[in-house]
Amino acid sequence: MLRIKKKNHAFLTIDAEPSILNEISDYFTFYVPGYKFMPAFRNKVWDGKIRLFNVQSKELYSGLYHYVEKLANEEGRNYKIELEESQYGYPNEKQEVSLDFLDSYNLTVKDKPIKIRDYQLEAISHCLNNKQALLLSPTASGKSLIIYCVVRWFIEEFNKKVLIIVPTTSLVEQMYSDFADYSKHDIGFEDSFMHRIYAGKSKTADHSIVISTWQSIYKMPGSWFEQFGCVFGDEAHNFKAKSLTSILSKMRECEYRFGTTGTLDGTQTHRLVLEGLFGKILRVTSTKDLMDKGALAKLDINVLLMKYNDELCKAMNGQKYNDEVDFIVKYEPRNRFISNLALDQKGNTLILFQFVEKHGKPLHSMISERADKDRKVFYVSGETGVDAREEVRNITEQEKNAIIVASMGVFSTGINIRNLHNIIFASPSKSQIRILQSIGRGLRKSDDGRPTTLFDLADDLHWKKSKNFTLNHAAERIKIYSREKFKYNIHELEI
Asked: What is residue 416's predicted lDDT score, i.e. its pLDDT?
């Protein structure tokens, strides 16, 4: 017998025989990816595991209830579950909300009426009926519109505040801008309802909607979070785990809890933590589905397999990963090739790099020196202020032939560009999240309807039967393309 009740809106409590509690603890205990390399493990102060169920307090994140059901119903167990009511209601409590209220919304984008797509309607319904959800939906799928509709319904239904948490200042501004655009022609719901929090901004506001970076609020006391009845964690995969869990654990009076993410990192730990904080995953749509329906631009992927001469391959054989990457990003012929590739492309071209000083800035200088006077070349990194980033986004929507040299970390999360025709992966990476987010930057349909072309630079420095690190990373990226059902071609060339 498992007796389960809501301790608050963040946690459940599970009471059972000690042996069963230990089973539940084992079920929700995982090794953290890469734990063997972490100082705490190496210093023997931590066993490398994360435990989502506390046997002593009997607490479990509320969003993991469906996993408890799965555990209880496994063959050989068949544990009975008894749900107990508390002042916070019953665990996994659902409701039925009609979407008729959407008929009264006068939604616009850039002064033009918009229609909510079928998958967006499904996501809105799922959120409102379940009160908790983790929405898995790719870049350019219209997540901000889903968030807007849910948030607006909640405010009008309960007259309570909503907290929207994002990972970057750019996304604070982008969410604010999107909401203001949607409601521009809607009487009774204005941008004056919103308040933004990041460096230098007040954390005190009477506004209905507060949009903040997680960095700005994770140290705030629990009492501060009590003002919110609904929370959205947008791009939740980009939050630091401890900070995100700290925030959501403090929001004990917040019943409506939603997260959005374009992709997960593939680890069970990452998935369960996010589901625990927000709720069960709903796959809203996929990039391939959106392309097939014509909602996103078509994508052509060219993997450029650059083969280095035997002398260099032999010299690099046995080098550490950091040494290999350092050689690649500083190798003059490779950077010259990237420069030529970018300058040869027609349309707005985005070059993504990983290292600012030793790669990004030299690439920008090389391209700027060689570009025609009438061709604009921009540079964006973590050093670039919010206003400058927004300026780049706005200009590229007007430009037809600009080149943007940008850090992968900033650009994969913080900026959406409409008229982007070409993307160049200039630095090696195997992060599924970063790759798919970066691709998503270029899939918003351009005004001319052109497909987006991705050039993925893969570095073949293998010697005899020994493959180099970055070649293995390229293989991982190709696996991602195959898994996402993207079409790609591999082209070999000498470098």
From this structure: 61
Residue type, 371: A
Q: All domains of the chain, ordered by start, with CATH? A: 2-84 (3.30.780.20), 99-285 (3.40.50.300), 290-494 (3.40.50.300)
Cβ partners under 8 Å of residue 462, min gap 6 = 313, 468, 471
Tell me, what's the pLDDT at 325? Answer: 94
Q: Select from 83, 91, 15, 391 the least CA-distant residue to 255.
A: 91
DSSP percent split of the chain into helix, strand, coil, nearest 5 = 40, 25, 35
pLDDT of residue 425: 94
Q: How many CB atoms lie within 10 A of CB 416?
A: 20
Q: What is the pLDDT of residues 64-106, one digit of tens each?
A: 999 999 999 988 888 999 999 999 999 999 999 999 999 999 9
In b/e form, how buried is each residue of 235-269, taking b as 16+ CB within 10 angstroms?
bbbbbeeebbbbbbbbbbbbbbbbbbbbbbeeeeb
For tokens 């593939």, the residue is 266
pTM: 0.81
Cα–Cα distance, 339 to 379 (Å, whole number)? 14
Q: Is the dihedral of CA 152, 154, 159, 162 positive or negative?
A: negative
**Beta strands at 49-51 and 29-31: parallel, antiparallel or unpaired:** antiparallel
Taking the C-alpha atoms of residue 309 and residue 326, their distance in angstroms, rounded to an integer, is 18
Which residue positions in the chain have pLDDT lower than 50?
A: none
The reported pLDDT for the residue numbered 130 is: 97
DSSP code at position 308: P
